[in-house]
Amino acid sequence: MKAIVSHDIDHLTLSEHYLKDLIVPKYFLRSKIELFTGKISLHEFFNRVGDLYKDQWQHIETLNEFNLKHQVSSTYFIAVNQGIGLVYSQKNSEFWIHKMIEMGCNIGLHGIEFENLEKIQMEYEVFKKLSNMHYFGCRMHYIRTNENTLNNMAKVGYSFDSSEMSFKAPYKIGNMWEFPFQIMDGYIIQKPKQWQSKNFKQSCEETIKIIDKSFNLNLPYLGIDFHDRYFSDSHKTWKDWYMWLIEYLSSQKIEFVDYKQAIKELEK
Ligand SMILES: [Zn+2]
Q: Rounded to whole angstroms, how far apart are CA atoms 252 and 261?
């Protein structure tokens, strides 16, 4: 079993939300619950307050540095359209698309439209134009799909998608590879609540169960989704968990590949 790591970019700044939604006040309410239930430290809480002044919720560069150091060739999914709780502008998205390409990152689209073929096509074309890429994949924001989404994505020309969360091996829909994934940060650390419900140790134990299950099912690839937003001292459990996960997989001699390398292996 090899591992495929990906990151969804849901936020760039805090201020992009101010006139658009209530994410920031809700987040601080949640942070207070996490502080009073002992899930986060006072230090972590104040780091979050500090983020208000830094106006930064993306951690693409520090995450990329960590990944490079650990030979993790990951993929960043970035949106070119606005959706639930995702409101950064296309201009800022374009800036990061170019910057990540310069940094040598693999990038794909974080899709918003999942119900309508024309709109799916439109997002595909916008990303293609902004990135100047022809071969790329997608993950839907909140992994939203209906019975037609994946077929429609294959039709518009995506090379791969990873919006399905299940214990299945990659499979093909038309010319598109679907890469089901098994590990998502929020599902481990928050679920079943809306705020942090597990501590670091509990999160690791839960993760090992998923890794073992994937291994026992003989899955060729273990899919991991970690949001760059949490690679920060404001989210210590999340960041520590991700760093632990990469080191744990390395210690188990599990190799990291990106989607394109996996497709090459699958089509051999
Ligand atoms: Zn998302």
A: 20
Question: What is the 225 CA–ligand 1 centroid distance (Å)?
Answer: 10
Which phi and psi angles does 85 have, rounded to 5°?
65, 10
DSSP 8-state symbol, 165: B
Q: Identify the residue whose tokens are 């849901």.
A: 10
Give dist(CA 129, CA 134) in Å, integer: 9
Helical segments of 132-199, H only: 149-156, 185-189
Q: Which residues surround ligand 1, an ion (CB under 5 A)?
A: 8, 10, 141
For 66-87, the pLDDT digits (tens) are 999 999 999 999 999 999 999 9
Diameter of the chain measured on Cα atoms: 53
Distance 248 CA to ligand 1 centre (A): 25
In angstroms, rounded to a whole number, what is the distance separating the alpha carbons of residues 21 and 62?
A: 27
Question: Alpha-carbon distance 43 to 41, whole Å?
Answer: 5
Residue 191 has pLDDT above 90, yes or no: no
Cα-to-centroid distance, 110 and ligand 1 (Å): 7
Interhelix angle for 60-69 vs 90-103, to 10°?
Answer: 20
CA 116 to ligand 1 center in whole angstroms: 18
Provide the 10 A C-beta neighbour count for residue 94: 16
Residue corresponding to tokens 């949490």: 230
Domains of the chain are 2-266 (3.20.20.370)
Whether the pLDDT of residue 193 is over 90: the answer is no
Tens of pLDDT, residues 85-97: 999 999 999 999 9
